[in-house]
Each structure stands twice: as C-alpha cells, then as structure tokens.
Amino acid sequence: MTVSAAGGPSAAASTGTTPTASPPARSTAGLAPHGEGAAGDRVIQAALEKAWPADLPAGQERELLAAGRDLLRADATGIGRIRWPTVFPDPHRGIAPGFAAARFRIQAAIARRAGRPDKVVVHLVWAGADRGGTYTDLRLSDWYFTRTHTKGAPVWAPQQPRT
Fold first, then answer.
1. Which residues contact 143 (CB under 8 A, 6 or more apart)?
2. Residue bearing the bigger pLDDT, 99 or 77
3. Which of 65, 73, 123, 135 could staple 129 via S-S, CB 3.0–4.6 A?
4. CA 79 to each of CA 66, 72, 108, 138, 159: distance values in angstroms, whole numbers, following the listed order
C-alpha cells in the first residue's frame, strides 16, 4: 500500500492504479529536500520569513544580514576574519577553517529582534563541504548583535558565538 504525506493511503493505493509520474520529493516540514541545491534556497528563505515575521526596519535588516553573512563566511572558511577583531582576536593564529570556500553557500537568512530592542539575532541556513569533502546543506548558525554607540553613533556589534 502507498501512503500519502498526510499518513493515509494515496489515491493510487485506493484506486488500485499506479501513478505514471511521482511528484518531486518534499520534506514533511515543507522545505526543499536535502541535496536540492541552490534551487531549493527560495523555499528555505520563504519558510524562515513565514516562521519569523519581519520586526526590524528594512535598512537595519539589510545591514545586519550583510554583517551576519560576512561573519559566517569568516567563521566557516577563514575569509575575512581580519575584519572582525572582537570575534576573531587573532585571525592569523593558524586555526584551519572547517569548510572549503569554493563549496560554501548561504541558503537563506533573516535578522530579527532577540528579546530586547538593542539585541538582534541573524539566523542563517547554509551549505558547505568540510575539509574531508563531505557536503551538507541546511546547516544552521545564529549570530547575535547588540546595539552600542561608537563616537556617538549607534552601531550593531557582534557578540562572541556561543559554544
């Protein structure tokens, strides 16, 4: 017997016919299946936006998303660590990045308030190949930012990642 995604018998099972073509695979969460590649990124982005409605001004969100993407890239691949001295105090320390830059891709990202007006979290979903060559998508990372003031101007400062 064939079972539908809803858990009951499929139309093919109840009519006794065999479907001629099967629909593309979908995960139960409504996301693109693992391994879908860049084609599935739009679905992941839409799911994030639906789960966490926007709560920041568009300009602030763009600024924080750019910073979050840069931080994730620096953390995962080592590229650009020098730009973030408070997060990576010694970028030349010799710690090998965990992922290959050529196979690194951010699949989706949102920035949202994190409980207080002066604290924000950037949620990122990404894919990458580790040094052993194993490629995995739908990896999750959160970067937190706190609004501070530098020379009288408000800035979003990244916080140390939680380990």
1. 67, 68, 71, 72, 121, 122, 124, 158, 159, 161
2. 77
3. 135
4. 15, 10, 19, 21, 19
